[in-house]
C-alpha cells in the first residue's frame, strides 16, 4: 500500500487580482498566498508520508520573471527530498513560457519529464510506472496521448498530462485529447492538469483534474487544493480531495427582497458574510457581495453606493477574516420608474436618454471627451483586463442602470427625501 | 385619480376623524387646523395612506404602534374606486373594510405606479420647497431649461446636482492634477512598479553568481594548501633560530650540577623552622625572668593592708541610719511652720463664732453641733415659703376678679328689655317667601294680558266684515261651519252645471261654423269635368309620344311635325304637360261622384245643431234663476249677525279665523281672572303682615300695594328681635359660668391658707436646736447655719495640724535612741557624740573599709596568675630543646654550628636544577613537539648566519603573495555568497505584485466611479436641454398665464431671452412692456414664479397622464392678501381638472377662500 499526492496549476507567486486595499483589510492574510498554499502541499505530503508527489504543469506563471520564485521552489522540493519523497513533474503551457523553469537546478528526488517524447519511469519498490510528457512550447495543439505507451501489465500505471481534454470553458484548448483515448491506454490513474476547476472526469479508470491549489481571483471561487490517492494491491482504493488554499474566494449573493431598513440590510449582509466565513473553515475569505432583489432600499443603495460599500467594509472589518472584494448593487426597485414616468415628463425623458445611450452603441470615449484624458494615463494591465471605457453589452447595461439610479436619486433627493 | 375620503382612524392626535373629499368635481380642498391641531400629522397620514406608515414615526404618541391606522377611498378617472385601510406593519399592511388583507399591488395603478419620492416630487409642494425653488431660479440666473426641468420633476435645485456631479468628477481625476484620487493612485502604481523592478531577480543573474562562486571556492582551496606548506618551512627555521641560545644554556647548567656532586637536600622551609625555634627559646627565657620579679613585689604590698571588716558586715544598718538622718533634719525644719498654721485656724474659728453667737466661747461651741443636722429641713422649708406666699396672693386676686365680672354681667343683663314674640310674624313671612316675588309676577301677568288683548283686537279688525267690540265677539251668533259648507256645495254644483251647458253651446257654435264653411267650399268649388275632355287630352298626348319615339329610338328628324304639334315650346316639354293634364282630368272625373253626396250630408247636420242650441238656451236660463235664489238665501243666513257675507268658500276661512280669535279672547279672560286672584292673595298677606307688626309694637306706615317694602321691613324686624334674644341668652349663660368658677376659686384660697399654717409649725421646730426664734426668716437661718459650719471646719483643721506636730516630736526621739545604740556596738568612741554627727562619721568609716577590702582581693588574684604562668614557661623550654635535636638529625649535623654550611650546599643544588628546568621549558615551547636531541641534530645542520635571511624570504612570499590571493578569493566568495543569500527565494517581488494588483483594483473602481459621475453629468445636461426644447413653449405659455394671474397683472407674461453666455433665460414682462430678469424680481415674486412653473407643469402633465391629487402645504404664508386670493383662484380653476389639497395653519387663507366667489370648487375642512 502506498499513497501519492496529485496537484497541478500551482502558479507560484501569481498575484491575487481585484482586491483593493482598504482600512482594516486583512492585508497580511493574503500575502504570498500561492506560496503558503504550496507550503501546505509540502506539509501534507510529509504528514501523510506519501511515496511521491505529482505536479502536473503550470508551476510558474508564464510571464513571471523573478527567479526568487524558482529558488523558493527548489528549497521546498528540498524538504521533500529530506523526507524521502519523490516529485514527478510535467511542465505545462505556462512553464514552457517561463524563464524560471528553464534555469532550475532541481535536486535528485525530482524528475522532470522530457518534452520531446513520453517517458516512463518504473518504481520497482512500488510496482508502479509513471508516464508523462512535458509541453515543449507555450501552445501545444497536438494530442500528446497518441505517443504515450500502453500501460504495463502487473504494474500500477499513472499518466501525467497537462491538457484541456476536449475543451473546458475559460481554458485554452491545449493538448487536446478524448476521454476514450485516455481510457484506451490501460492506465489505473490519469493525473491531469491545466483546468483550474476541480473535476473527477472518470472513476474507471480514475481521471482527475485536481484544480489549482489557490484561487487567484473571484472567478476562482470555492475550495482549492490537491488530491490524495491511496493505492492498494495495484488498485486505487481511495481518492480524497484536500483543501490547502490559504485564502478562499466567494461570491455571496444577498437577497434584499422586502428589506426595508438599513439596519435589516446590514444584518443580512453580516449574516451572509458570517456564512462565508464558516464555509471557509478558518481561512480568510475574499468576498464579492452581490445585493439582489426588489427592495425599497434600492434607491438609497444606488445613490450612496460609496457610503454603503464603506458600511459593508466596516462590517467585514469587524469580522476580521473577510476581505470585501467588491460590492455589486444588483437590486431592483419595487416599482420601476419606467412604469411611473408619464410620457413627456422629465423623468421619462431621462430614462429615454439613458436608454438611447445604452442601445446607441457609441463608445464612452465619444460621449464624454474627457474620458480619453484618463484612459491614456491608465496602465496597460488595467485596460487589457476589461477596458472600462469600452464596456461590453452587459457592463454597459449595468453602467446605464447605475447612472440612471444615480441621477434619479440625486435629482429627487434635492427635495430632501433622503436626508442623511 | 382623486381622494374621496381620508379616514384618520388612529393616527397622530386623531381618533376616528374623517375628511370627506367626495365632491362632484375634483375641487380645491383646504384642510385648516391651527397650530397643534395636527395639520402636519394629517399631511403625513395622507402620505401614509398612499405608501404605508413609515417604520419610525412620530405619530404614535397617542395611539401605540400596533394601533395606528389610516384609511381612505381613492377614485380613478375611469370610475374605479378602492376603499382600504393601512396599519403599521412591515408587510401586508393593507386591509379592506372587513379587515381582510388586500394585495398591495391593488393601489399601484391608482398611484400611477409612482414611488414615494417621485410622488412627493411631482405632486407635492411645501413652503420650504417653494422658497428653495425661487432661490434656485435666482442661482441659475433664470436658466430656462433648468427651471422648467426642475419644475417638471418638482425638484428645485438642479444646479447643485450638476455642480455636485462635476465636483465629484474633479475630485476623482484631473488631467494635470496630482492630489486627485485617481492621479494619486496612478503615482502609487508607478512607484510600486519601480520597486518591483528592483526586487526582481533574473535567472541569468543567479546562475552567473553561482558559477563565479564555485570557481572562487576551488581556487581558494588550492592557494590555502600552498600557503600551509610554505608556512611549515618557515616555522621550522624560526624554531631553530629561537632554540639556539637555550641549547647553549642547558649544556652549561648540566656541567655545573655534575661539579657539585652529592648533596643532602634539605626540605623546603628548613631554614625558616630553625630561625623560628631559636627565637621562641630566647622569648621563653625572658618571660620567666619578668614574672619572678613581679611576684616578689605583690607579696610585699599585700602585707601592708588590713581592712575594718566589722563595719562592712553592718553596712546596711549604717546606710539606713544615714538616710533617715536626711528625713530627721527636714522634719525639724517644718515643725515651727506647721504650728503657725494651727494657731491661724483656731483664731479664725473664734472670729466666726463671735459673728453669730457673741455670747458663746469656743469651748462651748459643741452644744450647737446637733442643730447643724436640721440644715436640709430648713432649706426645704425656706424654698416652700415663697411658693406658699405666692399661691395665697394669687388665689385672693382671682376671687376678687371673678366677683367683679359677675357684677358687671348682672348690670348689663338688667339693662336688656324683654322683646316681643316674633313667632306669628315669622309664620306669615314664610308664606310670603313661599309665594315668591309676587310684585314682579303680577306686573308681568298684566303686561302679558294687555299684549294679548291688543293682539286679539288687531286680529279682529284685520278679519273685517264685522264691526263689533272684542267683548261682544264671544256672544256673536254666527252660522255653523256645516251650513256654510252646504251652501258652498249647492252654489258650486249649480255653477258647474251652468258652465258645462255654456261650454257645450260654444262647441255647437263652432260645429255650425265648420259645417257652413264646408258647404260654401262645395258650392264655390267650380265646374264638373267630362269624359270627352279626357279623351281629347289623351289622344294629343299619344301623338306627342309617337313623335318623341321616332326621334329618340329611330333617330328620325321630326322637327317639322314637332313644330306643328308644339309651336310654343320644345316637344318633350309639351309632351310632359299633356301627360300631367290627362292624369288631372282623370282624377277630377273620379272625384265628381263624392261632391253631391257630401253637400246633402252637410245640410242635414246643420239642422240638427240648430235644434240643440235652442234647448241649451232654455236650460241655461233655468239655472241662472236657481243660482240667484241660492245666493239670496245665503245672504239671509248672515243677516242676523249683521254681516254681509262673501262667497261660502271665503266665509269658511273667515269663520275659522273668527273662531281662533274667539279662543284667544277666552284665553285672555282666563288670564285676567287668575291675575285678579293672585292680587287678592297678595293683599291678604300684606294686611296680615302689617297687622302683626302693629301687634308687636311696630307702627311703620307703608304706601301703595306692593308687597316687597312690607316684606323687607318685616324681615328686618324679625332679625332685630332675634338679635336681642340671642344677646340676653349669652349674658345669662356667662353669669352662670361665673358663679361656678367663683366657688372653686374660694375653695382654692382656703386650701392655701391651711398650708401656710402647717408650714409655720414646722419652721419653729427646725429653728429651736439652733437657738433661733421662730421669727427668723429662712434666708437668715440659712446664713447662720453656713457660718456655724465654717467655724466647725476651722476647728477641725487646727486639730489636724496639732496631730502632725506631735508625730514629728516622737520620731526625733526614736532616731536618737537608735543611733546611740548602734554606736555603742561598733564605735564606742562615738557614743557620746550628737546623733547626726555620729551617723556621718560611721558612714565615712564604712566607705574606707570597703575600698581596702577590694584592693587586697586584687593582689591575691594576680599572685595566683603569675605562679601558673611560670609553670607553663618551664614546659615550653623543654619542648624547644627536643625540636632542635630533630633539626640537627635531619641535616645530618651534630652541632648547631654546622647547620649553616649544610643549608648553603642544599640551596645551590636546587638553584641549578631550577635553571635547567627553565631552559628546557623554553626549548620545549620552541620545539613544539620535536625532541631535544632532534633539535640539537637540526641545529648542527644549519648555518646560524644565513638562518634569518631564509626566514625573511619565506615570510615575504607568504604575506605578500599568498595571503593577498587568499583574501581576494575570500572576498569574492563572501560577495557571491551574500549575493546568493540575498537570492533566498524571497517573496518580496511577489508581494509587490500583489500590492500592484491592490492598487489596480482601486484604480479600476475609481475609474468606474469617474465614468459614472461624468456620464451622469453629461446625460443630465442633455436631458435638461431636450426637455427645454420639447416643453418650453407650452409650459411657458401656461406658466405665463399663471404668473400673470398670481401677480395680479404686475407682470403680464413670461418670455425667454438669451443671456451673455448664450443661455436661454426667463424674463418677466411688465404691463409697460418693460422686461425684468429674475435678479430684478423680489424674493416673493420669484417664489410665485416657481409656483407658476409648478402649476403650469402640473397642468401640462394633464395632457399626457391621469391627474393625481396635488398636496400643497402652507405655501401662501408669505403672499400678500391680494396675491394669496389670486393664487387660490387659479388653484381653484386648476382644481376643476386636478384635485388640489391645500394644508394651512392660517385662518386668513380660509377666510379669503370663503369670500371668493368660487362656486362649487373650494371646500373647507377643519381639523
Helix content of chain B: over 70%
Average per-residue pLDDT of chain B, rounded, comes to 84
Q: Which oligomeric form is depicted?
A: heterodimer
Query: Biggest interface and its residues per chain?
Result: A-B, 83 and 88 residues
| Class inferred from helices and paired strands of chain B | mainly alpha
Mean pLDDT of chain A: 88
Please list the strands of the largest sheet of chain B in the order they lie side by side: 2-1-4-5-6
Distance between the termini of chain B: 24 Å
Q: Measure the end-to-end span of chain A.
A: 68 Å
Count of DSSP strands of chain A: 15
Bulk shape of chain B: flat
Give the total of beta strands of chain B. 13
Report on this model:
The complex is a heterodimer of chains A (420) and B (1167). Chain A has 420 residues and is α/β, with parallel strands linked by helices. Helices cover 34% and strands 23% of the residues of chain A. The radius of gyration of chain B is 84 Å and the shape is flat. Chain B is built from 29 helices and 13 strands. In chain B, helix 28 links the parallel strand 11 (1110-1113) and strand 12 (1140-1144). By secondary structure, chain B is mostly helical. In chain B, 23% of the residues are buried. Chains A and B meet through helix 2, helix 3, helix 5, helix 10 and helix 11 of A and helix 2, helix 4, helix 5, helix 6 and helix 7 of B.
Amino acid at each position: 500500500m502506498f499513497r501519492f499526492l496529485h496537484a497541478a496549476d500551482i502558479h507560484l507567486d501569481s498575484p491575487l487580482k481585484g482586491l483593493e486595499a482598504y482600512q482594516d483589510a486583512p492585508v497580511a492574510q493574503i500575502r504570498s498566498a500561492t506560496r503558503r498554499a504550496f507550503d501546505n502541499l509540502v506539509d501534507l505530503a510529509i504528514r501523510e508520508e506519501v511515496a511521491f508527489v505529482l505536479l502536473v504543469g503550470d508551476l510558474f506563471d508564464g510571464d513571471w520573471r523573478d527567479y526568487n520564485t524558482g529558488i523558493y521552489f527548489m528549497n521546498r522540493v528540498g524538504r521533500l527530498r529530506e523526507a524521502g519523497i519523490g516529485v514527478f513533474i510535467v511542465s505545462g503551457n505556462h512553464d514552457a513560457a517561463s524563464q524560471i523553469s528553464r534555469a532550475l537546478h532541481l535536486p535528485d528526488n525530482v524528475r522532470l519529464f522530457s518534452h520531446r517524447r513520453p517517458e516512463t519511469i518504473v518504481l520497482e519498490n512500488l510496482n508502479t510506472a509513471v508516464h508523462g510528457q512535458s509541453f515543449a512550447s507555450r501552445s501545444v495543439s497536438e494530442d500528446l496521448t497518441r505517443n504515450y505507451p500502453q500501460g504495463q501489465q502487473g504494474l500500477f500505471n499513472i499518466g501525467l498530462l497537462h491538457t484541456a481534454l476536449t475543451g473546458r470553458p475559460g481554458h485554452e484548448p491545449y493538448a487536446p485529447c478524448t476521454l476514450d483515448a485516455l481510457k484506451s491506454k490501460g492506465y489505473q490513474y490519469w493525473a491531469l492538469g491545466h483546468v483550474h476547476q476541480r473535476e473527477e472526469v472518470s472513476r474507471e479508470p480514475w481521471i482527475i483534474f485536481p484544480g489549482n491549489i489557490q484561487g487567484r481571483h473571484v472567478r476562482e471561487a470555492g475550495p482549492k487544493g490537491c488530491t490524495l490517492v491511496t493505492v492498494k494491491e495495484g488498485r486505487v482504493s481511495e481518492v480524497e480531495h484536500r483543501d490547502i488554499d490559504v485564502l478562499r474566494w466567494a461570491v455571496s449573493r444577498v437577497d434584499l427582497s422586502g428589506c426595508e431598513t438599513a439596519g435589516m440590510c446590514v444584518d443580512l449582509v453580516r449574516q451572509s458574510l458570517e456564512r462565508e466565513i464558516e464555509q471557509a473553515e478558518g481561512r480568510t475569505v475574499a468576498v464579492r457581495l452581490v445585493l439582489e432583489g426588489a427592495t425599497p432600499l434600492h434607491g438609497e443603495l444606488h445613490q450612496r453606493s460609496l457610503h454603503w460599500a464603506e458600511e459593508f467594509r466596516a462590517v467585514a472589518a469587524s469580522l476580521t477574516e473577510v476581505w470585501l472584494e467588491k460590492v455589486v448593487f444588483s437590486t431592483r426597485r419595487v416599482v420601476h420608474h419606467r412604469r411611473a414616468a408619464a410620457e413627456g415628463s422629465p423623468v421619462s425623458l431621462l430614462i429615454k436618454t439613458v436608454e438611447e445611450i445604452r442601445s446607441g452603441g457609441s463608445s464612452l470615449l465619444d460621449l464624454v471627451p474627457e474620458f480619453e484624458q484618463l484612459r491614456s494615463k491608465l496602465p496597460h494591465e488595467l485596460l487589457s483586463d476589461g477596458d472600462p471605457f469600452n464596456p461590453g453589452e452587459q457592463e454597459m447595461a449595468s453602467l446605464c442602470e447605475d447612472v440612471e439610479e444615480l441621477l434619479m436619486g440625486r435629482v429627487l433627493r434635492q427635495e430632501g427625501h433622503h436626508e442623511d | 385619480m382623486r381622494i374621496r375620503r381620508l379616514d384618520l382612524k388612529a393616527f397622530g392626535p386623531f381618533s376616528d376623524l374623517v375628511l370627506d373629499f367626495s365632491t362632484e368635481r375634483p375641487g380645491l380642498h383646504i384642510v385648516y387646523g391651527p397650530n397643534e391641531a395636527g395639520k402636519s400629522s394629517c399631511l403625513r397620514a395622507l402620505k401614509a395612506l398612499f405608501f404605508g406608515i413609515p417604520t419610525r414615526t412620530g405619530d404614535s404618541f397617542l395611539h401605540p404602534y400596533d394601533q395606528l391606522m389610516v384609511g381612505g377611498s381613492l377614485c380613478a378617472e375611469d370610475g374605479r374606486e378602492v376603499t382600504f385601510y393601512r396599519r403599521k406593519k412591515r408587510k401586508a399592511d393593507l386591509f379592506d373594510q372587513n379587515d381582510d388583507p388586500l394585495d398591495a399591488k391593488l393601489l399601484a395603478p391608482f398611484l400611477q405606479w409612482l414611488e414615494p419620492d417621485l410622488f412627493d416630487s411631482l405632486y407635492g409642494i411645501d413652503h420650504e420647497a417653494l422658497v428653495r425653488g425661487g432661490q434656485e431660479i435666482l442661482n441659475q440666473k433664470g436658466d430656462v431649461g433648468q427651471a422648467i426641468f426642475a419644475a417638471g420633476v418638482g425638484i428645485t435645485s438642479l444646479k447643485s446636482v450638476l455642480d455636485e456631479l462635476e465636483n465629484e468628477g474633479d475630485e476623482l481625476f484631473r488631467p494635470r492634477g496630482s492630489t486627485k484620487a485617481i492621479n494619486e493612485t496612478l503615482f502609487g502604481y508607478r512607484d510600486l512598479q519601480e520597486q518591483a523592478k528592483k526586487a526582481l531577480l533574473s535567472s541569468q543573474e543567479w546562475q552567473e553568481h553561482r558559477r563565479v562562486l564555485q570557481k572562487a571556492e576551488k581556487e581558494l582551496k588550492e592557494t590555502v594548501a600552498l600557503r600551509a606548506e610554505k608556512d611549515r618551512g618557515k616555522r621550522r627555521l624560526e624554531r631553530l633560530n629561537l632554540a639556539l641560545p637555550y641549547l647553549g644554556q642547558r649544556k652549561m647548567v648540566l656541567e655545573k650540577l655534575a661539579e657539585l656532586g652529592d648533596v643532602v637536600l634539605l626540605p623546603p622551609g628548613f631554614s625558616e623552622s630553625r630561625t623560628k625555634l631559636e627565637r621562641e627559646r630566647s622569648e621563653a627565657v625572658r618571660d620567666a625572668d619578668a614574672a619572678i620579679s613581679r611576684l616578689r613585689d605583690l607579696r610585699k604590698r599585700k602585707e601592708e593592708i588590713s581592712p575594718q571588716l566589722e563595719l562592712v558586715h553592718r553596712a546596711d544598718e549604717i546606710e539606713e541610719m544615714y538616710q533617715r538622718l536626711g528625713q530627721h533634719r527636714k522634719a525639724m525644719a517644718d515643725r515651727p511652720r506647721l504650728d503657725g498654721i494651727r494657731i491661724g485656724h483656731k483664731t479664725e474659728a473664734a472670729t466666726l463664732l463671735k459673728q453669730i453667737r457673741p455670747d458663746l466661747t469656743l469651748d462651748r461651741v459643741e452644744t450647737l453641733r446637733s442643730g447643724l443636722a436640721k440644715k436640709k429641713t430648713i432649706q426645704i422649708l425656706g424654698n416652700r415659703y415663697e411658693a406658699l406666699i405666692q399661691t395665697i396672693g394669687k388665689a385672693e386676686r382671682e376671687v376678687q376678679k371673678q366677683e367683679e365680672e359677675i357684677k358687671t354681667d348682672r348690670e348689663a343683663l338688667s339693662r336688656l328689655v324683654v322683646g316681643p314674640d316674633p313667632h306669628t310674624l315669622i309664620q306669615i313671612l314664610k308664606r310670603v317667601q313661599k309665594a315668591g316675588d309676587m310684585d314682579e309676577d303680577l306686573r308681568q301677568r298684566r303686561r302679558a294680558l294687555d299684549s294679548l288683548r291688543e293682539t286679539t283686537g288687531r286680529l279682529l279688525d284685520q278679519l273685517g266684515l264685522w264691526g263689533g267690540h272684542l267683548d261682544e265677539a264671544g256672544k256673536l251668533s254666527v252660522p255653523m261651519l256645516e251650513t256654510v259648507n252646504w251652501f258652498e256645495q249647492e252654489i258650486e254644483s249649480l255653477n258647474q252645471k251652468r258652465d258645462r251647458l255654456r261650454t257645450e253651446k260654444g262647441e255647437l257654435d263652432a260645429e255650425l261654423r265648420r259645417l257652413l264653411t264646408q258647404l260654401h267650399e262645395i258650392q264655390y268649388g267650380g265646374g264638373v269635368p267630362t269624359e270627352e275632355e279626357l279623351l281629347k287630352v289623351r289622344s294629343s298626348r299619344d301623338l306627342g309620344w309617337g313623335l318623341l319615339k321616332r326621334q329618340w329610338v329611330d333617330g328620325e328628324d321630326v322637327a317639322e311635325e314637332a313644330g306643328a304639334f308644339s309651336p310654343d315650346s320644345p316637344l318633350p316639354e309639351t309632351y310632359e304637360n299633356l301627360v300631367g293634364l290627362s292624369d288631372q282630368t282623370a282624377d277630377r272625373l273620379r272625384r265628381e261622384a263624392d261632391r253631391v253626396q257630401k253637400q246633402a250630408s252637410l245640410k242635414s247636420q246643420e239642422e240638427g245643431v240648430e235644434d240643440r242650441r235652442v234647448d241649451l238656451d232654455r236650460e241655461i236660463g233655468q239655472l241662472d234663476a236657481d243660482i240667484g235664489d241660492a245666493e239670496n238665501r245665503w245672504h239671509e243666513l248672515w243677516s242676523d249677525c249683521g254681516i254681509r257675507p262673501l262667497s261660502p268658500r271665503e266665509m269658511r276661512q273667515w269663520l275659522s279665523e273668527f273662531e281662533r280669535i274667539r279662543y284667544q279672547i277666552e284665553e285672555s279672560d282666563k288670564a285676567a281672572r287668575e291675575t285678579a286672584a293672585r292680587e287678592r292673595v297678595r293683599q291678604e298677606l300684606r294686611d296680615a303682615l302689617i297687622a302683626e307688626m302693629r301687634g308687636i309694637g311696630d307702627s311703620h306706615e307703608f304706601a301703595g300695594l306692593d308687597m316687597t317694602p312690607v316684606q323687607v321691613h318685616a324681615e328686618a324686624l324679625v332679625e332685630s328681635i332675634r338679635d336681642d334674644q340671642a344677646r340676653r341668652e349669652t349674658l345669662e349663660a356667662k353669669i352662670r359660668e361665673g358663679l361656678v368658677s367663683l366657688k372653686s376659686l374660694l375653695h382654692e384660697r382656703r386650701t392655701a391658707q391651711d398650708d401656710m399654717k402647717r408650714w409655720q409649725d414646722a419652721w419653729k421646730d427646725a429653728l429651736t436646736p439652733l437657738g433661733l426664734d421662730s421669727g427668723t426668716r429662712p434666708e437668715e437661718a440659712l446664713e447662720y447655719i453656713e457660718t456655724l459650719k465654717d467655724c466647725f471646719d476651722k476647728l477641725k483643721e487646727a486639730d489636724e495640724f496639732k496631730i502632725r506636730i506631735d508625730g514629728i516630736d516622737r520620731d526625733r526621739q526614736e532616731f536618737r535612741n537608735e543611733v546611740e545604740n548602734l554606736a555603742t556596738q561598733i564605735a564606742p568612741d562615738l557614743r557620746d557624740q550628737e546623733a547626726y554627727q555620729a551617723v556621718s562619721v560611721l558612714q565615712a568609716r564604712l566607705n574606707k573599709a570597703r575600698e581596702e577590702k577590694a584592693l587586697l582581693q586584687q593582689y591575691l588574684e594576680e599572685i595566683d596568675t603569675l605562679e601558673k604562668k611560670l609553670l607553663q614557661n618551664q614546659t615550653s623550654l623543654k619542648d624547644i630543646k627536643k625540636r632542635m635535636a630533630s633539626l640537627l638529625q635531619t641535616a645530618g649535623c651534630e652541632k648547631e654550628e654546622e647547620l649553616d654550611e649544610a643549608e648553603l650546599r642544599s640551596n645551590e643544588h636546587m638553584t641549578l636544577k631550577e635553571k635547567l628546568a627553565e631552559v628546557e621549558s623554553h626549548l620545549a615551547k620552541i620545539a613544539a613537539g620535536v625532541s631535544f636531541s632532534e633539535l640539537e641534530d637540526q641545529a648542527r645542520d644549519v648555518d646560524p648566519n644565513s638562518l634569518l635571511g631564509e626566514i625573511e624570504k619565506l615570510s615575504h612570499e607568504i604575506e605578500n603573495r599568498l595571503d593577498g590571493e587568499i583574501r581576494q578569493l575570500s572576498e569574492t566568495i563572501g560577495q557571491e555568497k551574500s549575493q546568493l543569500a540575498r537570492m533566498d527565494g524571497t517573496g518580496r517581488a511577489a508581494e509587490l505584485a500583489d500590492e500592484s494588483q491592490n492598487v489596480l483594483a482601486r484604480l479600476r473602481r475609481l475609474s468606474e466611479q469617474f465614468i459614472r459621475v461624468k456620464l451622469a453629468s453629461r446625460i443630465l445636461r442633455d436631458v435638461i436641454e431636450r426637455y427645454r426644447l420639447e416643453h418650453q413653449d407650452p409650459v411657458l405659455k401656461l406658466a405665463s398665464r399663471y404668473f400673470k394671474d398670481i401677480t395680479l397683472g404686475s407682470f403680464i407674461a413670461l418670455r425667454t431671452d438669451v443671456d451673455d453666455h448664450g443661455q436661454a433665460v426667463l424674463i418677466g414682462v411688465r404691463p409697460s412692456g418693460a422686461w425684468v430678469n429674475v435678479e430684478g424680481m423680489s424674493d416673493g415674486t420669484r417664489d410665485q414664479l416657481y409656483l407658476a412653473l409648478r402649476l403650469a407643469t402640473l397642468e401640462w402633465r394633464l395632457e399626457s397622464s391621469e391627474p393625481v391629487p396635488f398636496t400643497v402645504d402652507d405655501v401662501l404664508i408669505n403672499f400678500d392678501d391680494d396675491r394669496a386670493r389670486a393664487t387660490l383662484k387659479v388653484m381653484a380653476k386648476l382644481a376643476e381638472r386636478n384635485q388640489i389639497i391645500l394644508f394651512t395653519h392660517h385662518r386668513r387663507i380660509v377666510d379669503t377662500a370663503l369670500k371668493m366667489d368660487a362656486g362649487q370648487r373650494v371646500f373647507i375642512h377643519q381639523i
